[in-house]
Amino acid sequence: MATTIFGVMIVLLLLGFPMMIPLIIGAFIGFYSLFGGFGQLETMIQQMLAGIRPASLIAVPMFIFAADIMTRGQSANRLIDLVMTFVGHVKGGLAVSTAAACTMFGAVSGSTQATVVAIGGPLRPRMLKAGYNDSFVLALIVNASDIAFLIPPSIGMIIYGVVSNTSISELFIAGVGPGILILLLFSGYSMIYAIRNNVPTEPKASWGERLKATQRALWPLGFPVIIIGGIYGGIFSPTEAAAACVLYALILEMIVFRSINFKALYETAKSTGLITAVVFILVAAGAAFSWVISFAQIPQTILEAVGVADMGQIGVLFVISIAFFVGCMFVDPIVVILVLVPIFAPVVQSVGIDPVLVGVIITLQVAIGSATPPFGCDIFTAIAVFKRPYIEVIRGTPPFILILLCVSVALIFFPQIALFLRDLAFGK
Description:
Blueprint: H1 2-14, H2 20-35, H3 41-51, H4 59-72, H5 75-87, H6 93-109, H7 112-130, H8 134-145, H9 155-164, H10 168-174, H11 176-196, H12 207-217, H13 222-232, H14 238-256, H15 262-295, H16 298-306, H17 312-330, H18 333-351, H19 355-370, H20 377-386, H21 390-395, H22 398-413, H23 416-426
Helix pairs in contact: 1-2, 2-15, 3-15, 4-7, 4-14, 4-15, 5-6, 5-12, 6-7, 6-8, 6-11, 7-8, 7-20, 9-18, 9-19, 10-23, 11-22, 13-14, 15-18, 16-18, 17-18, 17-19, 17-22, 18-19, 19-22
């Protein structure tokens, strides 16, 4: 049965069907094989509805909506100006500013695609004018935007938390350490690139200009205060923090900055609705598919054949890392989380690995895979946004992928990179 299901799904993917179709068809085949027909089809519908029932999932459309509002408004540009005034004058400062701006916008949006558009749009022309090679620029934007997967609020972490029943608040704080580490390593590589290629520096901003940029960015910097301060101050749950972000974004862009009118808000809401519908269909289909493969004990059979349970914690983490990295090279990250997390959950529990650490590692692998050829989803976002050929977008990615893989290995051997802040915040 497993061979038939996966074979049909691969054929459908190769024929160009969107990922939701192979998932639903795979679940249908599984139910037909398990129950000898569609007599128990209501069970499949129940599993699909159960997949989208958790209240925590409400945070997903909220964060998407807030990110869309900020992308259309002034928040992104104000954050860019803030970073530029402080580090734009150092060697490679424009590239460092781009990485830092991607990280900061990721911390207020949680969306990699929104970060590519909001930060890449204004900064790519400036970097090209400054003398950076376009392949380097595109690779930096795509990979730095993926830090949004780790820095809270992370939509990937919300999905993982719902699927694995892990605290989303703990996942959020655990993602901060690896996210900052990746930013520092990207910045270091950018400075080395600028030195080797003799890229000119930007003029140094005066302290008056820095003060002005800081004042202009104070309102957008309220987003991480609301998200992190609200959650860990006991004021909001992650879902309530997402709703507060939408309200704050509306007040900021419509009343304070007056950068969005009601017509633009309608278009933004419609775009968010379309994206949310796709996400929730994927979640529902993934829940039904996961139930089928779990009921058929396919994961147990595969893992026993590989011998994962006998590998110990480090071996299991390496297998998980490889599985998610390879999966996200070909398939949408949300689908990979929905399908693979239930497969590895029993092994993670049996060997005693902290599920928060697993969540951070999985989220990082999702980020890497999303920017890795052949089919990383952020590569195609960059192609659509910047209208550049596929080869040019992926040409500069290997150094960044190598940095991300090194951080992945470091997380496995030094889990406190992720867990230190979690332990500090929750007294563990």
